[in-house]
Every structure is written in structure tokens, then in C-alpha cells.
Design goal:
Blueprint: H1 12-42, H2 48-55, H3 62-100, H4 103-117, H5 121-134, H6 141-166, H7 170-178, H8 183-213, H9 225-236, H10 239-274, H11 280-290
Helix pairs in contact: 2-3, 3-6, 3-8, 3-9, 4-6, 5-6, 6-8, 7-8, 8-10, 9-10
């Protein structure tokens, strides 16, 4: 057994103590769950009338509930797709601006990125909803949500792109300059394509964050899943059941996105280990940019 970097491998006595502590913690956790379930049962939260609209197809409200929920979730997906697309474009432009900016105005770009990074996304959405109509920009609620999400996530993506470019060997930029490419051509043709491969798993993981944040659209009345649940609860009087099912749906979708990001990272790591140096596509890019 190899020794870890920061600590020694535990001995038999320590492993026994860890096992005993884990068993005790697990028993206590199960006890808490059991108490919660008993209390919920005593309060009638497991009654068929509360779960029927969600799990019983014979219930008269089952079809309407799931139809409305599916439409609301589709609104979440639409908002997430628009926000992620715009965030990718704006974030890439911000990253390139920061990388190529001169020292006399770099502080403004860095300040904007840090300002938006420190702004809670719920406030960004609310400010977009309140400020834009005051200056005469009246839009559907979908776009206020998308603008708020883009304002926050674009700076996160900008940092991901900047880190991806910074992770490349310095020889990439030096080789591009040696063959006569400008800084912009080097970024566009040589560095960015390679950086996107490196940071693609992180970008996909950020999609999980964007999709979760679309649930904040309820604060401006956007008809997404949480807003639909709030309206349905008024009629069904089952907030625990409906929000539990909604939480499971979000967990499943985000889990699938996370697994997709892991799959992409695995495929890219295999591609990097099997692609020889001086790959033909890289040489073609350089040749095209130099007119060769």
C-alpha cells in the first residue's frame, strides 16, 4: 500500500476506530430518518390523497399535473440552453479581452469579472427584471432570466477559458509567433481549439449549475418548474410530496449531466494519450493561417 502525500496510512487500531465511528454515525443517521418518517406518517403525509396526483395514473389530477410539470421543465431547459449559449459566447469574449488587454485598461475587465462573480445570481436576475424595463427595454420574462444567468455564468466561463489557455505550454504561442501569426490568430487558430478540449468537461459541469439556477425564475414569475409547483400546491395541498418529486427530477437530470461530463473527460483523456505530437490537424491550421 503506497503512502499518501499528506498523511500516513492508518494502522489496524485507527482503521478499527474509523469503522466503529462510521457504524455509530450510520445508526444515528438511520435513527433520525426513522423518526422523521414516523412523524410524517403521523401527520398524514403518506396518505394516498397527497401522493395520488403524482404516482397514481387513475387519479383525475394525475394527467394534468404531469402535463403542466413537463411544460414547466421544458421552460427550464429552454432558459438553460439560451443562458449557456450566451454565456459561452460572452465568456469567451471576456476571456480573450482579458488575455489580450493592455495594462492601462486591464483593470476594468478584471474589475467587471470580479464584480459579477461576487454578485449572487438571484440578485442578477432580479436586477435585470427591475432595471431593464425602467430604461425602456421590455422583454418576455424568459429573457430577464436568461440575462441574469448570463451575467453571472459568463464570467465563470471566462475564467474557465482563461485557465484553459493558461494551461497550454508557452511553446504554443511562441511557435505561432515564429511562423508569423498575430496574437489574435494564435488564440483563434492554435490555442483556443486546444483549450476548449481541455476545459470542455468543466464547461459541461457548469451546465449543471445553469440548469439548477433556472429554478430561480420563480422570483420574477417565469413559468418554470418551481413556479408551477407553487401554483399546484395551492390546489393539491401537498407541498412536501410535490417538492420531493421535483427535487428527484432535478437530481436525476443533473446527475446525468455530471456523468456526461465525466464521459467526455474520459474520452478526451484517451484522445490526448493516443494522438501523436504534431497531429495533422494542427499542422493544417498553421499552414492555413500562414498561407502554406
Amino acid at each position: 500500500m503506497s503512502n499518501p502525500v499528506l498523511y500516513d496510512n492508518p494502522g489496524p487500531r485507527t482503521r478499527r476506530r474509523v469503522l466503529i465511528g462510521s457504524v455509530i454515525a450510520g445508526v444515528l443517521l438511520l435513527g433520525v430518518v426513522a423518526v422523521v418518517l414516523v412523524r410524517l406518517g403521523q401527520a398524514g403525509q403518506f396518505a394516498g390523497a397527497k401522493w395520488g396526483p403524482l404516482v397514481n395514473p387513475a387519479d383525475p389530477q394525475f394527467s394534468a399535473l404531469w402535463t403542466g410539470l413537463a411544460e414547466a421543465l421544458l421552460n427550464n431547459v429552454i432558459a438553460a440552453a439560451l443562458a449557456m449559449s450566451l454565456s459561452l459566447v460572452v465568456g469567451t469574449l471576456l476571456a480573450l479581452t482579458r488575455i489580450t488587454s493592455a495594462s492601462w485598461y486591464r483593470w476594468a475587465v478584471v474589475g467587471l469579472i470580479n464584480l459579477l462573480r461576487g454578485l449572487p445570481v438571484v440578485i442578477a436576475i432580479y436586477l435585470a427584471y427591475q432595471i431593464l424595463p425602467e430604461v425602456g427595454i421590455v422583454l418576455p420574462k424568459l429573457w430577464y432570466l436568461v440575462i441574469g444567468l448570463t451575467a453571472y455564468n459568463s464570467v465563470i466561463i471566462a475564467e474557465i477559458v482563461r485557465s484553459g489557455v493558461a494551461s497550454l505550454p508557452r511553446g504554443q504561442a511562441e511557435a505561432a509567433a515564429a511562423v508569423g501569426l498575430t496574437r489574435g490568430q494564435s488564440l483563434r487558430l492554435i490555442q483556443l481549439p486546444q483549450a476548449f478540449r481541455v476545459m470542455l468537461p468543466a464547461l459541461i459541469s457548469q451546465l449543471v449549475v445553469v440548469f439548477k439556477d433556472t429554478s430561480l425564475g420563480f422570483i420574477i414569475g417565469y413559468p418554470e418548474a418551481v413556479r408551477f409547483a407553487q401554483i399546484a400546491i395551492v390546489q393539491l395541498d401537498n407541498p412536501i410530496q410535490l417538492f420531493f418529486v421535483l427535487a428527484v427530477i432535478f437530481i436525476v437530470i443533473n446527475y446525468l449531466l455530471s456523468r456526461f461530463a465525466m464521459w467526455v473527460e474520459h474520452r478526451l483523456s484517451r484522445a490526448r494519450t493516443t494522438t501523436p505530437r504534431g497531429a495533422p490537424e494542427t499542422r493544417e491550421l498553421v499552414g492555413t493561417a500562414t498561407g502554406g
